[in-house]
């Protein structure tokens, strides 16, 4: 079930909300169980067959968590660590089978000609997210950070439908206390209004922005995949269109997830903080997909040694973390290289800060340095998105070469004057230019959407904001004739 669908907005969400708060009048446990059951229905609406897989994963991880939690003393602690390793291995094997098995077999086949195949494997929605969420739970249990073990709350923690399909990636400690809090089972109209406002902002990002950029990005990248060679102009148009599409698509989903959760008085962790405003790659990764960055830091980079074993080891750990982070996004060399490219960016950024701890040109205003850093960071991110979006490495290189004028198809002055994209028959560059200027103004000038709250206390302002919310909700819903799944569903 999609957030951007009639069924979710007009049927599923109202029924689940009403049922949750009505059952909470009798028992918090009933309300929590209702929300968990609704979340399983939400997941099974796509493919009921994978509800069993999700439940099996939850039961197995919960059981392992209980065994690990009971391990006390020196001997038991050793056993607990063995259980932790076994549980994490089982999770990674499940993820490897569904997401990476055919990728690895294809590469083995290409190298050795063995013709190995497991047939078509359908990737369960959200498997990367619910797997990482539960690995974090297991590690936190082993470290003694988990204090509550209610199965209903654990089931809800993993399946909670606002985050289940595409995140954010949750920590057990930040969710379980909220599920146990009595006041969260009572209607909070301010949270409901703020949640609806945030949901509407996210829906507008998806339907009015992301889906508007999609035809341009698909046309350019699709044209390259079909054997076309873009001009410099077209290559940058495609790259920028996808840069805007993935931002508004994923941040839009996250806003809708946070807004929906807030209607139930649950606060999910913020996943975006205006990442395209970043003035360095380090800052970009602190503000883009923040819960994934946190997971990779806490459960991969630091266990590898972090920065505690010397500079060479630090950068090796950083590169390994980013390569695996790229692979997490998808089973393809383009994703691995995207992660590697960001690993190189981060290494250069850290080295720059170490070699030049102070501003090299002190007489320049600070804002000029920030502007230059922001421009370099944004261009670097755009180039990396080309790798991320391309069908394979060959097509990625064609796009990148065209962006710097190498082996690019020439473009005539008349084509530029008419704003015509040569690889598109029914879309014009002028339309994309207007979209880009408007979208970049939104991204660079407006505050992060999570800072938008429903006004409380002034009736006139409250009424005006409510009317605006309904109006923009109508505008977004009016685009549902051509709605599409979210990009991160495939990861």
TrEMBL record:
Task: Please give the start and end residues of each transmembrane region.
Answer: 6-24, 29-46, 52-71, 83-101, 121-139, 151-171, 318-346, 366-388, 459-477
Q: Where in the cell is it found?
A: Cell membrane
Pathway(s) where this gene product acts? Glycan biosynthesis; alginate biosynthesis
Q: Which GO terms describe its molecular function?
A: acyltransferase activity
Record key words, sorted: Acyltransferase, Alginate biosynthesis, Cell membrane, Membrane, Transferase, Transmembrane, Transmembrane helix
Q: How does it sit in the membrane?
A: Multi-pass membrane protein
Record's Gene Ontology CC terms? plasma membrane
Name its GO BP terms in alphabetical order: alginic acid biosynthetic process
Tell me the PANTHER family matching this sequence: ACYLTRANSFERASE (PTHR13285), TEICHOIC ACID D-ALANYLTRANSFERASE (PTHR13285:SF23)
What protein family is recorded?
Belongs to the membrane-bound acyltransferase family.
The name of this protein is Probable alginate O-acetylase AlgI
């Amino acid at each position: 079930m999609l957030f951007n669908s009639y069924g979710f907005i007009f049927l599923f969400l109202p029924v689940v909300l009403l049922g949750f708060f009505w059952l909470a009048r009798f028992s918090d446990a009933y309300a929590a169980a209702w929300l968990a059951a609704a979340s399983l229905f939400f997941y099974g609406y796509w493919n009921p067959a994978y509800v069993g897989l999700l439940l099996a994963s939850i039961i197995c991880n919960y059981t392992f968590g209980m065994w690990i939690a009971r391990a006390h003393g020196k001997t038991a602690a050793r056993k607990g660590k063995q259980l932790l390793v076994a549980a994490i291995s089982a999770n990674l094997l499940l993820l490897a089978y569904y997401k990476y098995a055919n990728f690895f077999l294809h590469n083995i086949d290409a190298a050795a000609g063995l013709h190995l195949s497991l047939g078509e494997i359908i990737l369960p929605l959200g498997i990367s997210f619910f797997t990482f969420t539960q690995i974090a739970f297991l590690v936190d249990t082993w470290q003694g950070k988990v204090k509550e073990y209610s199965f209903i709350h654990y089931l809800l923690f993993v399946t909670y439908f606002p985050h289940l399909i595409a995140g954010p990636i949750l920590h057990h400690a930040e969710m379980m206390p909220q599920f146990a809090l009595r006041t969260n089972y009572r209607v909070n109209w301010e949270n409901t209004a703020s949640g609806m406002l945030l949901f509407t902002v996210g829906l507008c990002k998806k339907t009015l922005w992301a889906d508007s950029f999609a035809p341009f990005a698909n046309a350019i990248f699709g044209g390259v995949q079909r054997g076309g060679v873009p001009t410099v102009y077209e290559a940058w148009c495609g790259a920028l269109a996808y840069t805007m599409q993935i931002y508004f698509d994923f941040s839009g989903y996250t806003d809708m997830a946070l807004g929906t959760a807030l209607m139930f008085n649950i606060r999910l962790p913020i996943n975006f903080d205006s990442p395209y405003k970043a003035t360095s790659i380090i800052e970009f990764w602190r503000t883009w997909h923040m819960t994934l960055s946190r997971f990779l830091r806490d459960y991969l980079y630091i266990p590898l040694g972090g920065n505690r074993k010397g500079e060479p080891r630090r950068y090796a750990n950083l590169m390994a973390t980013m390569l695996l982070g790229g692979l997490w996004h998808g089973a393809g060399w383009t994703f691995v290289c995207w992660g590697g490219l960001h690993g190189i960016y981060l290494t250069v950024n850290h080295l720059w800060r170490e070699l030049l701890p102070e501003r090299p040109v002190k007489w320049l205003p600070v804002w000029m340095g920030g502007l230059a850093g922001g421009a370099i960071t944004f261009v670097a991110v755009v180039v990396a998105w080309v790798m991320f979006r391309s069908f394979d490495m060959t097509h990625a290189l064609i796009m990148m070469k065209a962006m710097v004028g190498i082996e690019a198809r020439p473009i005539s002055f008349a084509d530029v004057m008419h704003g015509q994209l040569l690889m598109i028959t029914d879309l014009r560059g002028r339309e994309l230019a207007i979209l880009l200027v408007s979208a970049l103004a939104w991204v660079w000038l407006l505050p992060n959407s999570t800072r938008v709250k429903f006004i409380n206390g002034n009736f006139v302002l409250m009424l005006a904001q409510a009317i605006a919310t309904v109006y923009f909700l109508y505008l977004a819903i009016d685009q549902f004739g051509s709605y599409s799944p979210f990009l991160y569903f495939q990861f």
